[in-house]
Amino acid sequence: MAEHKVRVYRSEERFVREEQLAWKIAAVAADPVEVTDEVAAMVVNRVIDNAAVAAASLARGPVTAAREQATRHAPPSGRPGATVFGLPPATRVSPEWAAWANGVAVRELDFHDTFLAAEYSHPGDNIPPILAAAQHTGLGGRELLRGIATGYEIQVALVRAISLHKHRIDHIAHLGPSAAAGIGTALGLQTETIYQAVGQALHTTTTTRQSRKGEISSWKAYAPAFAGKIAVEAVDRAMRGQGAPSPIYEGEDGVIAWLLDGPQAQYVVGLPGPSEPKRGILDTYTKEHSAEYQSQALIDLARRLGPRLGDTLASVRSIVLHTSHHTHHVIGSGANDPQKYDPTASRETLDHSIPYILAVALQDRDWHHERSYTPERAARPDTVELWRKITTVEDPEWTRRYHATDPAEKAFGGRVVVTLADGSVVEDEIAVADAHPLGARPFGRPEYVAKFRRLAEGVVSTDEQDRFLDAAVRLPELRPDELGELTLVPDWPLPTSSAAGLF
């Protein structure tokens, strides 16, 4: 792993392209190194994971709208186009719109993989645009596999090194460049072309975090899909010889100087050296529960605490979660968002409210991607009463562990202190989710398949599930004519939007 020092340069300073972070990202993407068997197996897992979540979201409003937008954009003459979740494999659309529709389907339930470090991310958001580009250009499974490995590698590297949320920039600013790089790898593009695509993708995906603050709307699912769509378009322009702002990261008026840590900023970004395998995906982890990642371990803890508390839940005086800075300030009471305690709040808002999630998980001793979020469930009087007794506080030790580089130290949980009406206290803590690689029940291939079966049940037939899984596990060997099998068709007619758009 090579460490690259990144800082801002004044316009009059000599700063060659080959030293720019965007070029170094492009060089990694252009490296023809093959994917290891371990990484290939994990790519297959994440393709299955994405499809599981997409299956469960096919009838939801945001996914329906995005799918309908995509169907209005046919592929150009002479190109096969790309598939869309929910539509037959023969129904193809232009690749940027397939990336859009599939990206929304994958992201809608907040239920796929994650990587947390200096920044937060959902690296599986790289898969829809890379897959769409691969299908559209007639690539096979080997090329797709290499592209996805690059997408994960670049996103993990950027997330480790550069915090966006500190400056209220949304995490899709790391996704645009990683997806563009992944597409460049899949297509076998030259470093120069990928460099221009990375710069364009970054420049056009630097947006604010308001999409995940206050009254959170369906745009939370659309934002990563937008970055994937932009990445496809950026690669297309770069292939036509069109350039990007340069230096995009380090320039005097660039992203770092004006949107991030400012003119004096310095970062160290670790990237694989020449011929070094891309292993970043192995440091990422998926979700067992449909909720923001920091709540995963706490749902598991609540399921453990629920039976211990039993009927005493009705006599709780207060519940305090001692946790990391991020959990407290983003999904906890430290966010100072009244919507996080509002029984009429949107699903997207409840998904980012750890007080709500703890209350429901304690009462139900379970979590469900639909039942746990219904308006009736959120408005239940005993739930509202318990919910409003739950607060969070930042604990420096949990913050330290959140940012730890040692996997054995790194933690995303916290300590729950329950004070009952009689003054007695019940407390417990958890470091990582049960499904985490270091958790009580780490996810392996059987767990990914079980999650897929569970979420696809009642949506697609068992035969269709079997067909998809057969294609997915053969991903590294798929022929170009087989890549279209990496989609799902439901058993019933899909709903349509209640309102018409422009297209």
TrEMBL record:
<dbReference type="InterPro" id="IPR045337">
    <property type="entry name" value="MmgE_PrpD_C"/>
</dbReference>
<comment type="similarity">
    <text>Belongs to the PrpD family.</text>
</comment>
<dbReference type="Pfam" id="PF03972">
    <property type="entry name" value="MmgE_PrpD_N"/>
</dbReference>
<dbReference type="InterPro" id="IPR045336">
    <property type="entry name" value="MmgE_PrpD_N"/>
</dbReference>
<dbReference type="GO" id="GO:0047547">
    <property type="term" value="F:2-methylcitrate dehydratase activity"/>
</dbReference>
<protein>
    <recommendedName>
        <fullName>2-methylcitrate dehydratase</fullName>
        <ecNumber>4.2.1.79</ecNumber>
    </recommendedName>
</protein>
<dbReference type="InterPro" id="IPR042183">
    <property type="entry name" value="MmgE/PrpD_sf_1"/>
</dbReference>
<comment type="subunit">
    <text>Monomer.</text>
</comment>
<dbReference type="InterPro" id="IPR042188">
    <property type="entry name" value="MmgE/PrpD_sf_2"/>
</dbReference>
<dbReference type="InterPro" id="IPR005656">
    <property type="entry name" value="MmgE_PrpD"/>
</dbReference>
<dbReference type="Pfam" id="PF19305">
    <property type="entry name" value="MmgE_PrpD_C"/>
</dbReference>
<feature type="domain" description="MmgE/PrpD C-terminal">
    <location>
        <begin position="289"/>
        <end position="473"/>
    </location>
</feature>
<feature type="domain" description="MmgE/PrpD N-terminal">
    <location>
        <begin position="19"/>
        <end position="266"/>
    </location>
</feature>
<dbReference type="InterPro" id="IPR036148">
    <property type="entry name" value="MmgE/PrpD_sf"/>
</dbReference>
<keyword id="KW-0456">Lyase</keyword>
